[in-house]
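Predict the structure of Polyprenyl synthetase family protein.
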Amino acid sequence: MSTPGTLTPAPHDSLGLGSGPFGIAVQDEALAVAVKDGLVRVEELLLASTSSPYPYISEITSHLAQAGGKRFRPLLVLLAAQFGDNTAPGIVESAVVVELTHLATLYHDDVMDEASLRRGVASANQRWDNSLAILSGDFLFARASTLLAELGPQAVRIQAETFERLVSGQISESVGPAGGQHPVTHHLEVLAGKTGSLIAASNRFGALFAGCPAADVEILAEFGEHLGVAFQLSDDLLDIASESEQSGKTPGTDLREGVHTLPMLIALAKDPAGDPATARLQELLRTDLAGDDAAFEEALALLRAHPSMEEARDVVRGYAQKARDVLDPLPDVAAKEALRGLCDVVISRMV
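Done. Here is the predicted structure for Polyprenyl synthetase family protein.
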């Protein structure tokens, strides 16, 4: 049962605060009104920022924004702002910056992953082509930069540092672990860069523009980093364990493309002696599954039933707990329990 001030899973779009796994109900009325109103303003500016005077550009660049999404990062900007003046200038604009940045990375990721489905609709590279998908991502980065220019040099610096971590994380994932580095350790570092950094920036922007003390800004950014890793890990588990109607994308995309997420890395690290299922799974994970539907389906079934899935869930729970714990020094406002509640939602969305 939820306590006052927490966020709990709710029916689809019950309060207009989001859809999918992060559709939430806010028990504190003042917080509910502030977040709902903020998200409405974010959505208006987001759609305006993805449009162009040229209709054919608008059609592509607004494709994913209009498909919906959890708006998880803008939500975190708005919640972090509750620890200061949540009506201050720059909060909504910075929330749109992080969502534009996130959307841009999705366009690029889908090209790299050769994905065919995103948010329940055809990915941009599938509907148009790779070149237009990449250029659309670049367009969204440019629109984010336009907003940042109005927010000042500190915001530009935060975005630049975040973007560097995003790109470094992607490069590190492509290159693989350094000599002697454990693959799981490397993977978690990659996720901290690719996902944790932008979610940390979301909290940092919200707290910064709300005028929070520097110590509180750092606490909220650290919370975002831990939550971001937990969020991405849970997303990867959802991709393996769910059907496409639940996850909004083709199940097993990473598995098919040979991208090893946490449960796969855990499975690969196990001693297969005396365990035929693990031995067979390891064999399949080391082969090219992209063009072999039968092998892919076998690997997916073995992975779903493998103990590595529960071990990966334990890692998610650990990151979520670290996120909860770091919030302890913050003032006891409704948003504090709301952020803690989001940690629970990240865990509960795992299947």
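The chain is about 70% helix and 5% strand.
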